[in-house]
Specification:
The chain has 182 residues and is α/β, with parallel strands linked by helices. The strands form 2 sheets. Strands 1-3-6-5-7-8 form a 6-stranded mixed sheet. Strands 2-4-9-10 form a 4-stranded mixed sheet, with no helix packed on it.
Length: 182
């Protein structure tokens, strides 16, 4: 039986006629590699790419079976954050004990709509919504920003005891959801 996470449920939302709706998308499957763009949640066995992290944060859960991830925009509404956590839980996120938040915290804190103005507030939200006794680590990318760049590509790779993170040394390019650039 497929989990809700694998079915790739789309919670489509748009602001039309004064109605705010979530735009969070759950990416299909459990491939070896996955590209997770803004407002998306996905999973991968060995590698997740978060393209164009500028003001966004990447959230990655790790266990020996694979990784879960979300690309969170500072413009996300509370409903969209709730949908993101719901999809991460549907993918087993409550059982993942190792979580990493990577991004430009300085810029995210300036533009957040949900009050994520400190790493401790993010950690508190993650503990409330994911693994209550998990470990939560943060890695800042503020010093990597270059003038004229559209963020950096953050790459999470599974290792024997957690995730290793790296960034691109070139300006980020846009990727299609769920697909790696060739």
């Amino acid at each position: 039986m497929q989990s809700a996470f694998e079915r790739g449920a789309l919670v489509a939302h748009a602001e039309t006629r004064g109605i705010t709706m979530s735009i969070i998308k759950n990416l299909d499957g459990f491939p070896a590699e996955q590209s997770i763009v803004e407002y998306c949640v996905g999973a991968a066995q060995t590698r997740i790419i978060y393209p164009g992290i500028q003001q966004c944060l990447s959230v990655t859960g790790w266990c020996s079976a694979g990784m879960l991830g979300a690309h969170i925009s500072p413009g996300a509404s509370q409903e969209e954050i709730d949908d993101t956590f719901s999809m991460l839980r549907a993918g087993g996120g409550s059982n993942y004990r190792n979580w990493y938040v990577v991004g430009n915290f300085q810029k995210h804190f300036l533009h957040t709509k949900v009050g994520w103005t400190s790493k401790s507030k993010i950690g508190k939200a993650m503990r409330k919504n994911l693994c209550k006794d998990g470990t939560y680590q943060s890695i800042g990318t503020s010093e990597l920003q270059r003038e004229g760049w559209w963020g950096v590509n953050v790459v999470a790779e599974s290792s024997g005891a957690g995730c290793n993170f790296s960034t691109s040394s070139t300006p980020a390019r846009r990727y299609l959801p769920g697909r790696l650039a060739s």
